[in-house]
Specification:
The protein is of the alpha+beta class. It contains 18 helices and 16 strands. It has helices spanning 2-27, 32-55, 61-86, 92-113, 127-148, 151-181, 186-209, 221-250, 253-274, 277-291, 298-311, 317-328, 424-487, 491-517, 532-542, 566-583, 614-619, 636-646, and strands at 117-118, 124-125, 334-338, 345-352, 361-362, 379-380, 395-403, 406-414, 528-531, 548-550, 557-563, 590-597, 600-607, 650-656, 660-668, 670-673. The strands form four sheets. It has a six-stranded antiparallel beta sheet. Helix 1 packs parallel to helix 7 and helix 6 runs antiparallel to helix 7 (186-209). The termini are far apart.
Amino acid sequence: MGLGISLFAGLVAALAYSAFAAILPAWGKRSRLNMTFAFASAATALWALAGAFDDAGWVEPWTVRCAAALREGAWFTLLIAILRQDAVHHPLWRRLAIAAAALAAANFVFAATSATIDTGLGVRLNQPLIAFAVAVMGLILAENLARNVVNARLWSAKLMLIALTALYVYHILEYIPEILASQTPEAFAVAEPLLYLLALPLFVVTAVRSDSLRLKVHSSRRVVFHSATLIVTGVVLQGIAAAALYVRHFGGTPAVVLTIVLGFGSLVALIVALSTASVRSQIRTFINENFYSYKYDYRLEWTKFNQALSRYEDRGGPERVLLTLSDLLDSPGGVLFVRRSGWKQYARLAYSQFGETLGPIQETDPVLASLADERIAFLELRDDDTLWKPRAPETWLVVPLRFRNELIGFSLLHKPRAPKKLDWEDRNLVALIASQLAGYLVHEQTAQALADSQQLAEFNNRVTFALHDLKNTAGQLSLLVQNAEKFGDNAAFRADMMETIRHAVDNLQGLIGKLRDGSKPAQPAAPARVNVADIVARFALKKAAAGVVFARDRGETLAFADIAQPAAFENALEHIVTNAIEASPEPGSVELSVAAASGRIRVAVRDRGPGMSADFIARELFRPLRTTKNKGLGIGAYQARAMMRDLGGDIEVESTVGSGTTVTLVLPGEDVKLKEAS
């Protein structure tokens, strides 16, 4: 059993010191002292490896003694190098260096030869005695270093001196029995590499603290957390192993029961502890406060912040802000109050764990005076707080959310899962995250306001188009009233009047439906193939009384187009023809024609009105709310072009001042020419 422990201890110590010796020049400052420290660590690793091989019978005993002598000489060199930094002009370090070098050389010679010298004074010089003197010399070097080094360097070297002093004292106790009785207790030799392994963390801290070494040992908090978890698990398993060892030696039913209960209980307790958020939080807090110069890994915290915002995509903006802030401060929940433009109070927009009974807080509420200072990152509430605690006793922290120095909201957070000591790092991190969350809330409010304004604009467009249609319908009804007195007795007029009224009623009902259901997405209609020439012919016939003429060419044209909403095309044609009639000086001066070529159908509306300038067509014609008519709304041309573009077409305009205007409605389609009529 002793052989197994010694082999294991030696190999582990050799591996640990080898890694430390490799890390020092790789991650530390390039200096002579750093290389000396790495040499001492490498010599210790070599000694531990030789001791492990010696226990296994793979090397000669003198190899271990020489490795131990080399180890002592290497640590002497390091102590002298540190002492020389503050006593370079003092002869002390030279005297100590000469004495230490002489002892180290003698130790190596006696270790290699196993010689014995009789001095004749009753003292025999041999390897154990020289090793004892070396240990005493190590204590002398450590004591002189502690007394002569400056305070700043003593702080960095203090832990190393403690470790070396303890090891030298151990060596003295180890060699005394061998000097007096020529016997070395086996336990001392077996325990030695384990003691060096225990001293290694003190050497690591010294390398990190020392300005001459500047070892930058970094490990992520996640790695340290999981490493600590593994260590705790290992301790539990060692306890189970100890119970098994007890059973092996003593046996019996009670011992077996004890082992089963201990193993099962430890395993369940470990799983429960690691699955509990409060326990994990306490472990993280302990690691952050004791193993790192900075409490937070800011790269990791910023990554967590972005992931938290994206993780809660199914929640509203205020809920995402609250949950993100709660995760940052390890709080199980809280309440978020937000003030928006035009509000005179802070409304509760999100809550978790508590706050469902809290109402809005007015801008003039006295509790907000505690957040008036812009430098406040958070308020940590005590139990005797008289402002916030009476309203929300569960509150632990009040975090203001400011955007451009304006308080747009604040959050009340529940007590954390594990007790936390908040310091300047927490304030800086919370202030940064709170400003980002405040900007997020403002941007969300801006996006919501923009969406609302777009809905209002869309509704205004529908109202404007409806007003234009109402104007046209009102014009038709007004013309009908004017002619009713003259032609009321005419049966044909009465039939036409009923048709006009029916058409007006249909238009009014359609307008009401558009205003009511315009915000609902319309189901796309399947395109239907229609003959545009027939539509124009029927439309011209209906408008014949107003002087509209459909001019056919010598051949009958079949102009086919796939139109999803033929009624929309007729409405656009209605707008254009009505404008042409109003612009024409006399009846019969509006002419419609249809032409089809190159996959395009062109419906031309020609009038003999005053015409328009090219500048007016380019700048004003299709802009909404622009008109030259006394009773116009300036929306007809704009709405007609919008309808045509929805159908996949467009509107083209040619006009000459004083000579009339031609407006062409263009549709995608095809044409088929029949034989000329006989």
